[in-house]
């Protein structure tokens, strides 16, 4: 997998290209791990690789769809049992395939939301994550935030993978 084109000058396309790259990197990091390694933690924090993927699914939902676009979500904190700041956890029907399908579908919906916005300086809509009384962030800020979440968590997943089977690299 190649890094996004280093000649991209359009900030919107650069954000989207990096998000695509990180989603694909997550998929590569999970490929070949046993069911035990996908569901068990080797880290003091206690999260498993699948819990981290579920967290990324919900991070993107919370910030781009529920946050920026104000799309309604019944459980925006579904990665943590429905409560903000609770530990990440899986439901019985969370599988590698189901979570990666959600990650991909979420990426497609994020792309639609970002491409439909008039300007990256546009502020998040009220009614989702943000109320009318709050100073809502810009789309540019939201995208940078989601990118840093992916970068940080992909790095953590890289360490988890190396501890599981010695796999390193992108």
Automatic annotation (TrEMBL):
Quick one: signal sequence residues? none
Please name the InterPro entries in this protein's record.
DinB/YfiT-like (IPR034660), MST-like (IPR007061)
Q: Where is this region: Disordered?
A: 76-96
Protein name according to UniProt: DinB family protein
What species is given as this protein's source? Kribbella qitaiheensis
């Amino acid at each position: 997998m190649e890094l996004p084109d280093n000649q991209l000058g359009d900030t919107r396309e650069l954000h989207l290209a990096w998000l695509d790259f990180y989603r694909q990197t997550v998929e590569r990091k999970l490929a070949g791990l046993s069911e035990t390694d996908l569901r068990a933690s080797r880290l003091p924090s206690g999260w498993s690789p699948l819990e981290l993927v579920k967290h990324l699914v919900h991070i993107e939902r919370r910030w781009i769809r529920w946050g920026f676009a104000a799309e309604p979500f019944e459980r925006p904190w579904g990665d943590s049992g429905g409560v903000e700041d609770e530990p990440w956890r899986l439901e019985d029907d969370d599988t590698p395939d189901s979570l990666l399908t959600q990650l991909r579908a979420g990426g497609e919906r994020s792309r639609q939301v970002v491409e439909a916005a008039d300007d990256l300086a546009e502020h998040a809509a009220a009614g989702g994550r943000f109320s009318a009384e709050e100073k809502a962030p810009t789309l540019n800020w939201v995208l940078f935030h989601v990118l840093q979440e992916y970068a940080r968590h992909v790095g953590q997943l890289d360490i988890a993978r190396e501890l599981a089977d010695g796999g390193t690299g992108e």
